[in-house]
Amino acid sequence: MSEMAEDEAVGETAKPPKAAEKGKEDRRSPGTAEEDFPLPDWVADWAREAPRIVVRAPGPKSKAIIKIDREYVSYAYDRCFTFTFEKASGASVMDADGNVLLDFTAGIGVENAGWTHPKVVKAIQDQASKLIHSMANDAYFDKEAFFAKLLHEISPGKALKGTFFGNSGAEAVEAAFKLSRYYTKRNEHVAFFGSYHGRIGAGLSLTSKLKLRYSYGPLLPGIVFTPYAYCYRCPFKQTYPECGLWCMDYLENQVLQMGGPTGQISSIVVEPIQGEGGYVVPPKDFLPKLKKICESQGALLIMDEVQTGFARTGRMFACEHFDVVPDILVMGKALGGGVPLGAIIAKNEIMKKWRPGSHSSTFGGTAITMAAGLAHVQAIIDEDLADRAEKLGAYAMKLLREMQQRREIIGDVRGKGLMIGVELVKNQYTKEPHEATTVQGKCWRGGLMTITSGIYGNVFRIAPPLCISKAQIEKSLQIFEQALKDEEEFLKIGTSSPPG
Ligand SMILES: Cc1ncc(COP(=O)(O)O)c(C=O)c1O
Questions:
Q1: Over 50: is that where the pLDDT of 11 sits?
Q2: Is residue 174 in contact with ligand 1, taking CB distance under 6 Å?
Q3: Domains (ranges, CATH) in the chain?
Q4: Which atom in ligand 1 lies closest to the alpha carbon of residue 203?
């Protein structure tokens, strides 16, 4: 990944903000407008002032709503934020009591172009006044056709053609799973430790974490799990590159040969960068090797880009970093820009195998979601957000690596583009995980909304809307570091030394 190169600096210095803009970007560092990556013009004024804490959350309005919610809404939701949403714009959110927070979550990888992007809002409003539901199973609709054409055009290497639309990431995984069985007429699959593919059916069966699988068995048979290239915590206690990708050797020569499947592998399902597993970036040769294993097995490679897709990692799709084109690509989250939408796109000969009626859904491909998704993806393209994510991500990564030198609680920093994981440890030598919840709470109090992931719940996801400004990244990371510092002081972390 290229760092935001210093030699990209051009001689011109930033013009002082116009009177009307005063206060909008008052934390700008010197440099050109391009280097500053200011917020787009459409971002609301209140959102430019983030963070602004007016009352300790949850404030009275939030409290009143939460009281009703706790009585009537299912307890299954695992809410980590005790506030109620009021509105959001750009890279900031406001709660019901008027607190404004900077956002490092993008609504969990959904709002890539920015919260409440005007083109998405307009597309929804215009479409809603004409037609909300378009009976995608039974009738044709212009935006569905246009959107599928656009997805073909932006697919890795323009090599995938034929989209099936559903309502969520998990439903898209289900569609990929069914298509792979339908095409190969086989029924075994490989998935990875640390994987997350959704909470229903095939997605849950392909998800590795015990907490999420607990008490739902028996899940779908025919799925074997194998270690991902989580090099910071290699289960084989190896070091890359000296290991020569031991995990791939283990898959090829142990799992697939001994006591695993019966040689009927339909597909291998993988996230190009693990999301819920802890923003784990595999080495460059991991996915190419996996592709070769698929070919040798006559199995399809299903790439789940629900969390990594649509410019998040500095490319339209993360698999482009690894020069691997999957047989089936799974999309969700940012595909809809906030409306419920998931989809798969596949090599055309694979997608063409499905006959009319092989798979369907009442709402998949319906008008309102097509209008919103098309507008969101078009905005990502028009605003070149992949480039912005790459450059701002490199800058954030640089700041975080410097922070790691100062903060012993940071065990690892890894990522691509604006998908960066910061793994917390109690001790950098022993790598004992430090669960992130209390730091998350401290960030929250400081005005930064963050979410965590990882098998030990100790990885911060730095995944803001891609329209975030450079100044907002700097401000957010200051809040983050203060929270880490407070936690270190509380836990007396900072005196670690090698064991023995
Ligand atoms: C990689 C991946 N696949 C699938 C899903 C499931 O998507 P959804 O929650 O829309 O069903 C997620 C959700 O976080 C995900 O990160």
A1: no
A2: no
A3: 6-103+387-491 (3.90.1150.10), 120-382 (3.40.640.10)
A4: 4
